[in-house]
Amino acid sequence: MDRSKITEMNAPPANPTLMFTGQEVVATLVELGVTHVIWIPDSATGLWEADLEAAPSLELLRVCREGEAWPLAAGLALGGKNPFVVMQTTGLFESGDALRNIVFDLQIPVFGLIGVRNWLYPDSPDTARRFTQPIMDAWQLGAVWIESPDDKPRLLEHVKKAMATDQPGIVLMAEGKG
What we know:
By secondary structure, the chain is an alpha/beta fold. The chain has helices at residues 3-9, 22-31, 49-54, 69-78, 89-94, 96-105, 127-139, 153-164; strands spanning 36-39, 59-62, 83-88, 111-116, 144-146, 169-174. A 6-stranded parallel β-sheet has the order 2-1-3-4-6-5. Helix 3 links the parallel strand 1 (36-39) and strand 2 (59-62).
């Protein structure tokens, strides 16, 4: 294996951007009426942990595998709660069958934010970066992108609209090195 590819894959983006602070994420989730955050944090979203844990109206639930997140969200939704899933793209890929089953077979709308590893590093050979959009297109989930701080309002807007129309609401958040 070419070791330069590994170094290149893990190099920081040319213009690293912090999309959300923990406080911004908490404020958005609280405004959406989220009751539970189901997650496996990554290098970007993990920075939100202290703020999520400190939010009195949010319960933070950690799963062992991402494939557990969507069924847990569905069960909470059926129980009258308002869950929100946070994971990275590799977790999205791993949990795809569970997400497909929840959204299409059981027709339970779920909501979440997916950190897209290495999206801010355009020359990254990371296949997680390469396959995200084609997979989202294949699943027909109508996800929206947050690629810069100017796009941050899309999280609230998209998930609010999805909740109001009883549709799944997935937001893809560009990340740097992951």
